[in-house]
Design brief:
200 residues, alpha+beta, 4-stranded mixed β-sheet, two-stranded antiparallel sheet, 38% helix
């Protein structure tokens, strides 16, 4: 099971690297393509907003292994995850430090979600992503049900960042759970649902 999880995480990391490469290639602006400014003006943005609790008690935090697996291969990449190394224990954090970590994760989530929404090469069918204030639920809306490889692996990434945010917002490891719903844009029906308890 662990080998399968690691293979999936490596695939996700490769996706992130490819995504960055693709973004870099488009910034040169070929004839017939939209400029970065035009893409920014017309691309959909993440729906909802993540709220960070500021008043938190000091506490000892241990980052679960499933939130750090695969980061070693990506240690020089700044695209996702916390700055902490793989398997690192966060230790005793003050309420202020926890809130700051949560703010950083929230900013990374918003940036990553907006990149997904604007990238029609890797995520051609994603037309909307909503996140609730506690970052416990993501609703991803699609224009169809035949998904790309990257669209099929997206729930794993969203579950991990959702749980990571919750960890710095006072939840214990056994309380962490992020739900990702895949919604048919035409019917409004949820056709797939994954939660982080299933990937641990």
């Amino acid at each position: 099971m662990m080998n399968v999880k690691k293979k999936i995480l490596i695939t996700l990391l490769m996706s992130a690297i490819l995504l960055c490469s693709a973004c870099g290639g488009r910034e040169e602006g070929h004839v017939g393509e939209r400029t970065p400014k035009e893409e920014e003006e017309t691309s959909p943005l993440m729906e909802g907003s993540i709220e960070v609790l500021e008043e938190l008690p000091d506490r000892e935090i241990k980052i679960p292994d499933y939130l750090t697996e695969g980061q070693e291969e990506n240690s020089d990449d700044e695209t996702c995850g916390s700055e902490k190394g793989p398997g690192e224990k966060a230790g005793l954090l003050s309420g202020e430090e926890q809130a700051e970590e949560a703010r950083q994760v929230a900013a990374q989530i918003e940036e990553s979600v907006n990149q997904v929404l604007s990238d029609k090469d890797f995520y051609p069918h994603v037309i909307g992503i909503f996140v609730n204030p506690e970052c416990t639920q993501f609703n991803v809306t699609f224009s169809g049900r035949e998904l790309s490889l990257y669209e099929n692996t997206l729930p794993m990434s969203l579950c991990i960042v959702g749980d990571r945010f919750q960890l710095y917002q006072g939840k214990q490891e056994n309380e962490l759970m992020t739900v990702v719903n895949y919604i048919d844009g035409d019917s409004g029906e949820i056709f797939n649902s994954v939660n982080s308890q299933e990937i641990k």
